[in-house]
Amino acid sequence: MSHIVITGASGFVGRALVRRLRADPQHQLTLIDQAFDAATDGPNTRQLLGSFGDPAVLDQALRTPADIVFHLASVPGSLAERQHALGYQVNLQATLTLAHRLAAQGEQQGHVARLVFASSIAVYGPLGTLPVREGQPAQPAISYGAHKLMAEIELADLSRRGAVDAVSLRLPGIVARPATETGHGSAFMSLIMHRLAAGQPYVCPVSSGATAWWMSLPCCVDNLLHAAAISTADAPPSRCWQLPVLHLSMHQILAALEQRYGAQCGQLLSHQVDPQIEALFGRFPALHTPAALAAGFRHDGDADALIRHAMAPAQ
Ligand SMILES: NC(=O)c1ccc[n+]([C@@H]2O[C@H](COP(=O)([O-])OP(=O)(O)OC[C@H]3O[C@@H](n4cnc5c(N)ncnc54)[C@H](O)[C@@H]3O)[C@@H](O)[C@H]2O)c1
Questions:
Q1: What is the model's pLDDT at position 315?
Q2: Cα–Cα distance between 174 and 196 in angstroms, integer?
């Protein structure tokens, strides 16, 4: 039986991960979040309400030492930018508290946990037009990205010391978030799918030629589970992998939606470009990730598979 701890278990990615892990009765799950509903409850599951940075919550969570920790909890980028103290406290300080509590488990009990950290492509900052490669310098332009990068570095150092066994994954935009969650700047990546699939008109805030890095939720969960299982003997000292992505334009997404849901999708879609959203989320260059692919991480395959996976009913 493995004891698996998931922070941010009620979030978009966390719920899908819990669903997947629950399929294996050999897993004992400890979930940490600030709110829960019945969707994440079930056999072999303990829900701990509170902050993952609270030592009392961590003591409860780690009464049985953790074998694997998926650290998914975070304050989203736009909120962390508006409320710097909150982002700093959760995305950096609480993450360091969690990392050091796990390091103490490794050092004092000899039980070194695999820690899978959901980092973000926000670590890079503005990207030019040239293809991005692994080793792209990280120059975050928002606090959320800066705090993710700082956490990656600390986790790599604790891993070098042998106190934890961390794997940081830089996630791209994951689709399709529920249509009700519209506050994110990149919400258009999910809304275009939900609206056109439902036969509803959609005014897209980026141009038809806008390009982004795409991954479906099931593919993201596959990669998180892979990160929990891989050998880190040959991991880079950074302990960090940029996940492979599909680099697709909105035009290619539309073509895949037409293929799946019918030609009327083209008539339902119009564009009213918001220059800020286009600049931040619609100008991604190509991305090459041979090391991540060699380590077994995957993208969805092609645009049709992306839509199929992203719009699959929750399993
Ligand atoms: N979804 C994406 O497109 C994407 C892209 C890049 C990186 N990521 C990263 O992946 C992770 C998961 O993303 P998501 O989309 O599921 O996020 P989400 O915002 O949907 O969920 C985050 C969860 O963390 C919880 N949380 C926040 N602060 C907490 C605290 N102090 N203690 C306990 N729980 C707390 C929230 O209540 C929420 O349930 C995040 O770390 C995010 O930064 C996601």
A1: 60
A2: 18
